[in-house]
Every structure is written in structure tokens, then in C-alpha cells.
């Protein structure tokens, strides 16, 4: 641009002037070992004192330095503005003149449009399925890490991603973020989510004037506000901002008979798009792209690159619509990429686009840098991104406000403050972390195994899957980094990767206690079957238990009665166990001392009411009465009471749940031919704290008393027996 060269010329002259003045100042002030001045500038004369001469010259140098600095800032600004709209390298002769009337901008130096720190930025992301939902998290982390503005995310999803992202962002509770998850039913737009970007003028709110549209496989390395500012550089005719495609795909020379869709030169990549929605609506965008697509599909039959092909075909016919973004806003790491021509230093890059099917395994000489940048956000603790934007009015968030008020009401001098604080902690939740096949119509007697675990119990998953063929719902308590380790573990496991009826729900770590009942509730709430088997991850169910439970539910007519079916629990102290194939084998091992009734030697009250002596000879289900501290593993309807989440860490987390089942008058029925076996493991951190800390045990007693009071308020006189039983103990 001409204005750029004018600034460069001024800067060059100023630099020469500064260099001359500095040389004179050095010669004037510098001395050799004899202390004689070598040269005096003729313009200063010979008579004035040397101090006055030195000060005058120094003042002139400072003034020129200031002018020089201002010119450098102006030049940097002009270069940034010029690069944003200038054609990129590698464009073919077919490009013709600069796209979108760039020549019209060459007569004046446009001012850089600054984004106000409190301006709300809108970002749209199309997301469908489990995998894309995971990718969205990494993308959003990279945006939140750099952002300084409030953001409004518009997620256009299928039904699967809708549930995942809705829960994720509600539980994330990032200040000054408004996530709007819109589920577009499959009957709209033929259910092809790869074309949804074309429909954003209709899918997004009609009063939304502009939006940044991103693919899910994008990583930001800068503040997204810098990209938002580019909207201010669009000419009156430009409506779409895109980066040139960085491969030869649209040139049609990748292989013999390769026939891509029509495009302007190399075409454009739609991983990053700036859309002026109000202008597009006035242009009749919906009809424009549909007519173009219908015309091209008569010869092309289908798209190869989904919406990107249609965007390029429209731009081919209407080149004035596009504003050419500089390539660093979409560095494409595809196969056969030419992205290395886009930058001289990787530090110059702003957006990385993993648009190769190989993703992190793509070949590029700088791939290690790109991969490390991506992994940084992949494993970054999302809790750290819950930071306020000071100086901006927060977007309304009633759940966040209520939580903050509850936290402020806590008494920090309360000995049990940490327990109460943990109860109020808002954990991020990522449902259905891996592929899961939802049931179209569950069997009326079907049952889901429900459990929770942390990273140190991961080795139990394969064994449980071998013992239980039915659906499983698991809540996993992990950090962001551990969740990625689990993902790699599950994908590498032949047993786990073969199952599509195991739902993994990640609850991200926060706080000092293990939120065991929160985890149970997450797993329980996201089951689909009418019945659930509430167990713990350390137990292996007997072979065939899934079928046995379904038959028992039908035979006992559970749909017409309120009952909890008890599966008797046993344990082994051996890490290697020949698992019994029948009740007879289990009784034999029990008699030989290789198996025991569960916790008989440390906590007999927990399972003694099961009446193991009666179970040995029982052939039909039998009823047992509730007793204090009873905590069996049960099969109940999915709509059973939730676990009380005030109980965190070790102690009373299951006892309180069974007590509430009894308060609601559930029958407790022991199944005569069912069993489960607890496998040995190292003590958890929380049980160690329980054993060693009198304060821990005291707080647990306080929580028990408060639970009794709440139970009495909900169930009245029927709950008095629990308080009486506690006092008798």
C-alpha cells in the first residue's frame, strides 16, 4: 500500500537523522586517553561552553528518538492493516485483480479498529457427536486462555452434542460467557451437519449482525478479539472473511481425474469464517448458496469438502463478497499443505487448524511446536479459566450468583467448613466422553450397572465389562490430563473399544475430598434403562448376573411394587482369584476360607442384615428389615432417591441412601442366587484421613445429625425411628 511506503520512507529518513546525531554526540562527548575532543560539529560553533553544546545535542537526539518511535508504531499498524486484506502468496494467475476491491483501499491509510474490552464477541461452532464434543472443549480452552472480552458461544448441535455441551457449560460456569446450545433436529437441512455453516443466517438469532465461525479442530494462539477487529476492515460489499486454502486441492492437480468444485484460484478454507450476517440476509444468502449448490450438483453429484465446496462455488461467481484474511488466521495442517509459506516464525501464528485426518500425526517440520501448543490446552485445567473480567458488567448467571451467595454464607470458623465447602463445589461434568449408542426403546426390565471411580481404579474396567454384558454408566473423577490418559487407555483396549453400551462421564477434579455421592448421582442420572444396579467399581458381579437380574425383575413384578433387590456381597483378600461360576462354588470357597462375607472383620453391621446364613440355603427371594448402618448393593428403579451429596470422602455415603429408601417404604428383598465379590486394593486417601483424623470423624458425625434432621422434616414421624436407632447405638 502507498501509505505504508510513505511511513517507511519517513522512518528511514528519521533513522538516518538519528544515526548522524548520535555519531556527533558520541564524537563530541567521547574522548581518547588524552581527554581531547576529536571533532566538534560545525553547526554548533566553537565558542559556547561544552556543557551547553552537549545538552543541546542530547535534547535534539531525544526529540528525534521520540519521532522515530512514533513512526515505528505507525508503520507496524499500517503493516498489520495492509496484510489483513492483501492477497496471500501462492495464488494462481486465475486470481486476477485483488479480491473484493482491495485497490480501493490503497489511497488512504485506514485506522486500526480497536475492540472495546467489554464488547461482546459472538462465536458460532457446529458440533455433532461425541468426538467433536471433546474437540470443542480444547478449542474453547484456547479461546478462554487468551480472551479479554465477554463471549457468546452459539453451538449448533445434534441431539448427542446438545446434551453433552449443555451440561458441560452449565457446570463450567465461566464468568462473562454465555453458551447457547441449539439443537437443530435432523429433519432440518437433511440432517447434514457438515452443511450447517451455510444456514447460519437462519439458524442464529435474527438480530445477530456478525459472528466468527470456527471448526472444532481449531486451536487459538492469540486473543480472539484481534480477529473480531478485522470486521472493521470489510468494504461495503464484503460479507465473508476467509483464509486462502493452503493446499492444491482446488487446483485439481493432486491426482489423475481429480475434479474439485469450482473455486477462485486455490479457493478458501472454511475452518475460520467471519460472517456479516445482516448483509448476507439482505443479499438473499439462503437462496444464493442453494441455487449455486443445485447447479453444481448436477455435474458434481456430491460435495467432497461439505460446506467448503459450496462457499467456494459461490465466491467463484461473486468474488467481491470475500475479504481475504491473512494466512496466520488459519494455518492449515492438512496433507500436502503449503502452510509453511505462510510464516517465517511460528511465534507469528494466531490460529492452528488440524484439518488433516491424521490430526496430530500430520507431517510438518514444525509439528512438534503445533502439537505442544495443542496438548497444552488439551490437558489444561479448565477450572483455572473461571476468571472474572474486571471492569465489565458480568453476563447474568443465576446459578453462579446463587452459588456465590451460598459460599459467602459459610462460616470459615466452622470446624467442618472444608466439608461444607466441598458440598457446594461446582464440578465440571463432561457426559458421554466416549462413543455411546443410545437405546431407541429400552426393554421394560432392562438394568444398567452404575458405579464411580478415579484413576487408581481404572484397571477394574476390563474385568467388569467381561462380567457384565449389559449397559454400564460410570462417573470418573479425573483431572483434565488424567481424562486424556483414560481416553488413550480406553481406545487402546480391545475390550473397552468393542463396547458401545458403556457410558463414561468425566467429573473434573476440584477440592480436597472425593465427591463420591455426586459421582454416583451423575452416573445414575444419565442411565436410560428402567432399572439400575447400584454398585462400586471394586466389585465383580457374578457371571450372568445381568440376565439373572432382568429375569428377577420380571418374576417379582417390580414394575408394580416399590422394592430394592439386594445382591449379597463377598470379598477376597487375594489379588488373583478363580472366580466362582455358581452359588455352589462360592459356598465351597467360603467354607475353605478363600472368600468371606463382605467386611465381616472390620464393619459387620454394614451387611449383616443380609442374613448370609439364610442366604446359603435360600431358593427364593426373602425380605429383610432395615437396620442401622445397613449399606447393601441394590437394584432399584431409575427414579429412586438420589444420593445425599453432603457426604464426601469416606463414611455414610451409602448408609444414608439405604436409609432414605427405607423411609420411602421400599421393600428390601435379598436375591437367593445372586452374588458379587469385592477385589482387594490399597486403601483410599479418604479412608486414611477418616482413620487418622478425629476432626474428620467429628465432622462426619455432625453431617449425620444434620441428615437425620432433614430426613425428619421430609418424612415426619416415620423418620423418628432412624434417630432413635442412632441414639441406641
Structure description:
With 729 residues, the chain is an alpha/beta fold. The chain folds into two domains: 121-380, Spore Coat Polysaccharide Biosynthesis Protein SpsA, Chain A, CATH 3.90.550; 429-727, Spore Coat Polysaccharide Biosynthesis Protein SpsA, Chain A. Helices cover 39% and strands 15% of the residues. The strands form four sheets. Strands 11-14-13-12-15-21-17-22-20 form a nine-stranded mixed β-sheet. Strands 3-2-1-4-7-6-8 form a seven-stranded mixed β-sheet, with helices on both faces. Strands 16-23-18-19 form a four-stranded mixed β-sheet. The longest helix has 36 residues, at 50-85. It starts with a helix and ends with a helix.
Number of domains: 2
Strand element count: 23
- The percentage helix is 25-40%
Question: Could you say which overall geometry the principal axes of the C-alpha atoms support?
Answer: elongated
The proportion of residues in beta strands is 5-15%
Query: Which structural category fits the helices and strands?
Result: alpha/beta
Q: Based on the structure given, which CATH architecture of the largest domain is correct? A: Alpha-Beta Complex
Short description:
The chain is 39% helix and 15% strand. With 729 residues, it is of the alpha/beta class. The N terminus is likely disordered.
Keywords:
729 residues, alpha/beta, Spore Coat Polysaccharide Biosynthesis Protein SpsA, Chain A, 9-stranded mixed beta sheet, 7-stranded mixed beta sheet, 23 helices, 15% strand
Helix-strand blueprint:
Elements: H1 2-29, H2 50-85, E1 121-127, H3 129-146, E2 151-157, H4 159-172, E3 177-183, H5 200-203, E4 210-214, E5 218-220, H6 224-228, E6 240-244, E7 268-276, H7 277-283, H8 285-300, H9 307-317, E8 322-325, E9 331-332, E10 351-353, H10 367-378, H11 398-409, H12 417-424, E11 429-430, E12 447-454, H13 460-467, E13 472-478, H14 480-492, H15 494-497, E14 502-508, H16 516-525, E15 531-534, E16 539-541, H17 545-555, E17 563-567, E18 569-571, H18 583-592, E19 596-597, H19 612-617, E20 622-624, E21 633-637, H20 655-663, E22 667-670, E23 676-678, H21 685-692, H22 694-715, H23 720-728
Parallel strand pairs: 1-2, 1-4, 2-3, 6-8, 9-10, 12-13, 12-15, 13-14, 17-22, 18-23
Antiparallel strand pairs: 4-7, 5-10, 6-7, 11-14, 15-21, 16-23, 17-21, 18-19, 20-22
Helix pairs in contact: 1-2, 3-4, 8-9
Pfam families: Glyco_transf_49, Glyco_transf_8
Subcellular location: Golgi apparatus membrane
Family: In the C-terminal section; belongs to the glycosyltransferase 49 family.
